[in-house]
Amino acid sequence: MLKDKNIVLGITGGIAAYKAAELTREFVKRGAKVKIIMTSNATRFITPLTLQTLSGNPVYTDMFSLSGDWDIHHISLAQSADIIVVAPATYNIIGKIASGIADDLLSTTVTATRAPVLICPAMNSNMYDNPILRSNIDKLSALGYLFMDAGLGELACKADGFGRLPDPADIVEEVETVLTQKDLKEHKILITAGPTRESFDPVRYISNHSSGKMGYALAVMARRRGADVTLVSGPTSLPVPAGVKFAGVSSASEMRDAVMERVEEATVIIKAAAVADFRPSIVSDSKMKKGADRLNISLERTPDIISEVGGRKGDRILVGFAMETENLTANARDKMKAKGMDLIVANELGRPGSGFQHDTNIVKIIDKSGNIEELPLMDKRDVANRILDRILEISGRKGRA
Ligand code: PMT
């Protein structure tokens, strides 16, 4: 969603300035147009040539350069920006902005813009704790400037503490969030994701191939669109999405408890998890010996979470997924009816790029009136947005009813 967005990246003089190179690449990879302003101290840490090459645009370092055009740079950059990102932001630049000082190209551009300004501090942990900095951040936050918290870890000065520049991937995600319309801000969305694991002894379990990507994509996109998101996830290797409340679970019964505890406060529930339908009836306390050639394990049903939610849903919007290998549409419709869902998303399993593990999916979205929206192969984040669009439509209709 950063395609063709105009991002002005302000880089100030700290050791983390080298990470601005990666940040620039990430913005450019997503199709953004990146213009860079460096303070003169920043040019001591990383060369303008590096950033010019990565951004594909001239890098601005001087308020008064004779660049051959008639633009007043601090005005044209300030006006063209969809967002200004200051990363890394030193103690000094934050102090200058908070005090109304505009004495170089970056501070002047920040002063002259109407675009959102996202400030990503990076500095020594004592400087980061300094009450003067804290009060500058409070003052600027109250005025509408946006801040990311500095990360925890080993700093360039070898001290451990808060002061690291947030990861470039997290900064990109924050920029996406700031620039996305908040059309879901009225909603509290509970999402399940990933597989469940059903143990039969302390070292072995039954599970499935779900990676969690579909459910996490829903969580990321819903959060970008302003929803208050809670993600209940089985075990995955994915990082917890920024800005999302998270409950990690393992078995179907843990997932059931985590979901039922949170149903009351949700306005929308989306069940993208691949919950195991069966679990071993007996769980051995010790590792089962492999003495015999054959091992029979008796299985019993796990709780049917979506049916239980369906029974208590009230006005809430309930969305399920269907995983079928035959008669997909008919089986998905039956499931939707039987379990009280408002929408069901049927995975076209077996088609390349669809279902488990992929970054993409091919789905049909089926509603209660029987309408079917067939989507082509899409990134799971785009599929997530289409599902969220349909949820918004339903909630609009409910609001009018
Ligand atoms: O995680 P990925 O690798 O990205 O893959 C995504 C996905 C294919 C797992 C996802 O898109 C998906 O289809 N998830 C649901 C898979 C599934 O369990 O389908 P089902 O037809 O067995 O179940 C129907 C619905 O009931 C689902 O919403 C499921 O979450 C829910 N269910 C199932 C069993 C159970 N005991 N309780 C439930 O709530």
Judged by helices, strands and strand pairing, the structural class is: alpha/beta
What is the CATH architecture annotation of the largest domain?
3-Layer(aba) Sandwich
CATH topology of the largest domain, what is it called?
Answer: Rossmann fold
Number of strands: 22
Provide the spatial order of strands within the biggest beta sheet.
13-12-9-14-17-18-20-21
Q: How many domains, in number, for the residues?
A: 2
CA radius of gyration: 25 Å
The average pLDDT value, as a whole number, equals: 94
The oligomerization state is single chain
* Distinct ligand kinds: ligand PMT
Amino-to-carboxy terminus distance: 33 Å
Top-tier CATH class of the largest domain: Alpha Beta
The largest β sheet comes out as: 8 strands, mixed
